[in-house]
């Protein structure tokens, strides 16, 4: 991939250009037409940088830009592992555990990062304040554990409210709703409203399911978490004691259970995962629900989802019993540097490159991933201003708002996944009605306490 | 001197003393040499990892805390097993696993047998039929899992769609959620995957039975039932044993299907030993506990195989 | 099952039709034919659906309510698979998966069948110390499913450096196939009369020569059947492959199937398309071995 013969001569001009661009880029994003690159200003010829990366779907397109990095710096980048989220999590876990780390740059994620704190290099000293300021502060904050910055975010996703404009805009339905419930039918802003709207729409036969959610694995545990904090509660307190059998917990569990018991969500909800709920929405069977931004492009494509393309709006997450806190379950895919790496400086350069304005903008704009940089966010809004569908630009602004204010990662401790694996079947039995809400929550809390105990917390 | 003895030990020993080395040299090494490669490979790939797994099952090994392997203390060696014994879900999974294996194997054999009997009466198109039968065998179990999960989807699945259109049900059934339809759906997928092999073997077996016995029986006025009971079934016995051995293959393949369709859920309703262990091991990183569960599952499989083994030894003797 | 097998089963005997008298076509026969057809059709339905899915547009594939009769057939899915359609290029390294799967399956089969056959011969002809225990041990290893084996095996392979290699995976599959092969060939060799062996010994042949020249040629259908099972097992295995392979350097088809699932979606069409591709070599192999398969599985009692 590199021509070692005339490296220095070949590098001179692009390096100078890159330096110029970076110099210009810093702090004057709006003034340029071209987004800036980063991480290209060190000569890395002769170095091989190995990366364990997430693959599948749209995640891989971005890696094409690496050839530019290789050309500019003279480094050789080798992707030693490529797999989907579960696979790479397993790969990293097993290699970190066995001490057989043969990569310099590794995938990371705000939901998984607590597992890897002992194995990644703290990054705060490798970046200037200015460089770090480019990224969303809430994410950087969330990713700083015990003063150590675990990762640099690549792109984010947060759950937003999708709703059917044809239903909410239908005058007959509006009239009927106001009559039955006593307040106007508008985009819901609270969890209770979502419940009532679902009840109404299904009752009127206007739609098959009022709302829906993925009912298994981390998906349901995360959704419950969202409801929990929108209702003012949390899974654990500062000492990692489980506290989700609080009033907030009861309200959240009851909400899910009532929806299921009254047929307002699909009957196989506990077996649905992300693709299942997306399919139901795409088929036009759902009125309003919480979903990730990442699906936006797919839903707006009339070839994939003719029932809902152009037929829906998006809104900020609802609040619960706590009128201040909106839902905002979020996660950010990211890059980290392995502690055992022997090329840390080079690895950091690669990370800077992959999270630079130009590369991020390309990825976000092409695939709809949410930017984690404010400069990219502005660019993306501008780039989508004239597509003919105002929602295309609006959603970026909405996303920016949510990412900066409502971004909330799951509880940050290494065994989050262990916990969700143990908790979600109990949550399912609450939803299904196999146990009462109180009993189920009590069991969940007891199990969690046991689990954390046995794991040494 | 019988050829049997000659094969075993060569020419008869001279009366009197002979050294150990001479005896060694005289022993027939051929069978040992022939089996040594097989033994080495199997020990390396299966026995050794299983031994390691057994060891780990006595430790609180947690994947992200590598030092936990050394916490092997004789006092709480059986901690993991004790936890399992206390765990309701474990017992449920154990019961489900036994139920699953027994029902799947027996139903597959029953359906395969019936199908083979019917096909044996067919007078044409045997070759293409056989190929058609083999098609389900060719799909990777992972794919079968995905596809059947989709078939049983309550909203967009084929099964509900067909049943609703034909008027057998009035509301969509949440196949993968309700009880006992959850286990039933899993068993259906597994049976679908298994019936072809059973049918092919039993069909071949049936076709190999000579007609003389049947002709004699109809001359004697035997009924269909009597023919089945006294001619067909006994003659087919060896083929049934072959089928059972083949089906022991399918434990692993069935796991793939279950993991994808329900992964033991929801709420542990369709939990099997293997899904439970899998979740604990990789996702939960509680590898010590998962190994203990694995061991239990292996013991279960071993018991099954052992019961089968006695049948098989009988069959071997019959054949010479 | 005491069939009188001939020394060399004549090919003529194999293709002669079953000696039957002329049977009246009973209503039961017609009924049985129809019933059989129905059952087979029901059995084939899911398979047909999967195969069809590969040839339909995405709209039809994800439609709710499902569209039973395909309205449109297209090769789009295959185009994407091979990267021929830039817009929807799935970027799945199909050729790598194909070559890896083929290599692994052929290697595993090519190695496990000889080793297993050798062991099977030993078990069948020689009653040596520990033979029963050994056979039992080998067979018990089949009670261990891939999921129980995968993590300890990973740690072992890692130490040897066989992770993410085609040979490493083939080695594991070889080990897993040997017990079944040994058992199958043991049964098969037992049907070959010992008198043949004895005649050879009288002529001065060694054990090996007897095995190689007399018994093995007669056991070819058994080898065929063993090969088919070994091949298919390696071709479709997922659990262990997913742990041992990391990149397209060694990934096989079943692992590649999960390329079509991201954390959030399942690309049914892509998966179905790749499954159709996966099936082709498998079908070809099985077709080639079809006769051997039935003869082999029933220890030569059946004329295929």
Overview of this protein structure:
The complex is a heterotrimer of chains A (457), B (320) and C (304). Chain A has a domain at 2-157 and 331-389: D-Maltodextrin-Binding Protein, domain 2. Helix content of chain A is 45%, strand content 12%. The model of chain A is unreliable at 1-31 (pLDDT under 50). Chain A is of the alpha+beta class and 457 residues long. With 320 residues, chain B is mainly alpha-helical. Chain B has a single domain (75-318), classed as MetI-like (MetI-like fold, Orthogonal Bundle). In chain B, helix 9 packs antiparallel against helix 12 and helix 11 (224-247) crosses helix 14. The model of chain B is unreliable at 1-10 (pLDDT under 50). Chain C is an all-alpha fold. Chain C is built from 15 helices and no strands. Chain C has helices spanning 11-15, 27-53, 58-61, 76-81, 94-125, 131-140, 146-160, 166-191, 194-202, 207-218, 220-236, 239-244, 253-257, 268-288, 290-297. In chain C, helix 5 (94-125) packs parallel to helix 8 (166-191) and helix 9 (194-202) packs antiparallel against helix 10. The longest helix of chain C is centred in the middle third of the chain and has 32 residues, at 94-125. Chain C is globular. Residues 1-21 of chain C have low confidence and may be disordered. At the B-C interface, helix 1, helix 3, helix 5, helix 6 and helix 7 of B face helix 2, helix 5, helix 6, helix 7 and helix 8 of C.
């Amino acid at each position: 991939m590199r021509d070692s013969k005339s490296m220095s001569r070949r590098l001179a001009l692009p390096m100078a250009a890159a330096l110029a661009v970076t110099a210009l880029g810093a702090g004057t994003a709006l003034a340029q037409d071209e987004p800036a690159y980063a991480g290209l200003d060190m000569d890395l010829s002769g170095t091989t940088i190995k990366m364990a990366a997430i693959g599948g779907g749209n995640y891989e397109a971005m890696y094409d830009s690496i050839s530019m990095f290789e050309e500019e710096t003279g480094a050789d980048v080798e992707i030693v592992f490529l797999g989907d989220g579960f696979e790479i999590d397993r790969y990293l876990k097993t290699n970190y555990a066995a001490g057989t780390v043969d990569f310099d740059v590794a995938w990371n994620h705000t939901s998984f990062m607590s597992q890897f704190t002992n194995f990644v290099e703290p990054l705060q000293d490798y970046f200037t304040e200015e460089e770090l300021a480019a990224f969303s502060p809430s994410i950087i904050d969330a990713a700083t554990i015990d003063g150590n910055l675990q990762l640099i975010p690549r792109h984010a996703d947060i759950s937003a409210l999708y709703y059917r404009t044809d239903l909410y805009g239908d005058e007959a339905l509006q009239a009927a709703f106001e009559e039955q419930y006593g307040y106007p039918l508008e985009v819901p802003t609270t969890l209770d409203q979502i419940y009532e709207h679902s009840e109404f729409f299904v009752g009127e036969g206007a739609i098959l399911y009022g709302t829906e959610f993925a009912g298994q694995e981390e998906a349901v545990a995360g959704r419950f978490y969202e409801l929990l904090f929108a209702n003012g509660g949390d899974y654990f307190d500062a000492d990692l004691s489980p506290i989700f059998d609080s009033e907030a917990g009861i309200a959240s569990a009851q909400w899910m259970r009532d929806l299921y018991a009254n047929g307002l969500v699909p009957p196989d909800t506990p077996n649905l995962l992300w693709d299942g709920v997306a399919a139901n929405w795409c088929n036009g069977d759902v009125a309003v629900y919480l979903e990730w931004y990442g699906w936006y492009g797919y839903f707006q494509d009339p070839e994939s989802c003719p029932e809902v393309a152009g037929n829906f709006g998006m809104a900020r997450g609802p609040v619960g019993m706590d009128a201040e806190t909106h839902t905002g379950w979020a996660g950010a895919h990211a890059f980290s540097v392995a502690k055992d790496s022997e090329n840390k400086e080079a690895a950091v350069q690669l990370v800077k490159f992959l999270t630079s304005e130009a590369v991020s903008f390309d990825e976000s704009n092409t695939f709809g991933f949410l930017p984690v940089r404010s400069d990219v966010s502005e660019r993306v809004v501008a780039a989508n201003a004239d597509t003919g569908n105002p929602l295309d630009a609006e959603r970026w602004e909405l996303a920016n708002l949510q990412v900066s204010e409502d971004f909330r990662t799951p509880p940050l401790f290494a065994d989050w996944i262990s916990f969700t694996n143990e908790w979600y079947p109990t949550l399912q039995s609450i939803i299904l009605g196999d146990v009462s809400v109180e009993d189920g929550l009590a069991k969940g809390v007891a199990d969690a306490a046991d689990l954390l105990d046995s794991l040494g917390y | 001197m019988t050829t049997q003895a000659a094969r075993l030990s060569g020419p008869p020993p001279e009366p009197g003393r002979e050294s150990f080395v001479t005896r060694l040299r005289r022993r027939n090494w051929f069978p040992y040499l022939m089996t040594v490669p097989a033994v080495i490979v199997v020990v390396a790939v299966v026995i050794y990892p299983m031994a390691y797994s057994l060891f780990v099952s006595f430790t609180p090994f947690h994947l992200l805390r590598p030092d936990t392997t050394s916490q092997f203390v004789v006092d709480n060696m059986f901690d993991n097993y004790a936890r399992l014994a206390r765990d309701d879900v474990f017992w449920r999974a154990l019961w489900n696993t036994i139920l699953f294996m027994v029902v799947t194997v027996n139903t597959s054999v029953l359906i395969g047998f019936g199908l083979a009997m019917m096909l044996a009466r067919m007078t044409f198109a045997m070759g293409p039929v056989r190929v058609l039968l083999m098609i389900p065998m060719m799909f990777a179990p992972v794919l079968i899992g995905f596809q059947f999960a989709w078939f049983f989807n309550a909203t967009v699945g084929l099964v509900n769609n067909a049943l609703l259109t034909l008027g057998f049900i009035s509301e969509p059934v949440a196949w993968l959620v309700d009880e006992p339809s959850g286990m039933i759906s899993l068993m259906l997928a597994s049976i679908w995957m298994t019936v072809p092999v059973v049918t092919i073997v039993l069909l071949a077996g049936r076709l190999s039975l000579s007609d003389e016995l049947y002709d004699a029986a109809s001359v004697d006025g035997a009924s269909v039932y009597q023919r089945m009971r006294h001619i067909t079934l006994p003659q087919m016995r060896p083929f049934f044993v072959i089928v059972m051995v083949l089906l022991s293959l399918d434990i692993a393949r069935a796991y793939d299907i279950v993991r994808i369709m329900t992964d033991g859920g929801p709420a542990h309703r369709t939990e099997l030993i293997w899904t439970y262990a899998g979740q604990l091991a990789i996702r939960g990183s509680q590898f010590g506990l998962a190994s203990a569960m694995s061991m239990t599952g292996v013991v279960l499989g071993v018991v099954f195989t052992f019961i089968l083994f006695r049948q098989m030894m009988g069959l071997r003797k019959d054949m010479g | 099952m005491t069939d009188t097998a001939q020394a060399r089963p004549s090919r003529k005997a194999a293709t002669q039709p079953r000696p039957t008298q002329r049977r009246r076509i009973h209503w039961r026969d017609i009924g049985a034919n129809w019933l059989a057809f129905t059952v087979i059709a029901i059995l084939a339905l899911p398979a047909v659906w999967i195969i069809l899915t590969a040839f339909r547009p995405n709209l039809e594939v994800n439609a709710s309510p499902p569209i039973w009769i395909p309205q449109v057939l297209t090769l789009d899915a295959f185009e994407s698979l091979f990267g021929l359609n830039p817009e929807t290029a799935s970027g799945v390294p199909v050729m790598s998966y194909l070559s890896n799967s083929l290599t692994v399956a052929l290697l595993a089969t090519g190695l496990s069948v000889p080793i297993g056959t050798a062991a099977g011969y030993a078990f069948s002809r020689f009653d040596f110390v520990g033979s029963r225990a050994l056979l039992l041990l080998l067979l018990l290893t089949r009670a261990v499913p891939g999921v129980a084996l995968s993590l300890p095996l990973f740690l072992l392979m890692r130490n040897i450096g066989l992770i993410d290699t085609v040979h490493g995976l083939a080695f594991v599959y070889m080990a897993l196939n040997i017990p079944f092969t040994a058992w199958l060939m043991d049964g098969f060799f037992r049907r070959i009369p010992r008198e043949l062996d004895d005649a050879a010994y009288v002529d001065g042949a060694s054990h090996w020569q007897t095995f190689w020249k007399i018994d093995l040629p007669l056991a070819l259908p058994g080898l065929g059947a063993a090969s088919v099972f070994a091949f298919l097992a390696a071709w479709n295995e997922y659990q262990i492959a997913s742990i041992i392979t990391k990149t397209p350097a060694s990934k096989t088809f079943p692992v590649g199937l999960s390329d079509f699932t991201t954390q959030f979606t399942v690309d049914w069409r892509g998966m179905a398309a790749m499954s159709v591709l996966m099936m082709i070599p498998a079908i070809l192999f099985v077709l080639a071995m079809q006769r051997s398969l039935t003869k082999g599985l029933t220890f030569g009692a059946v004329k295929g």
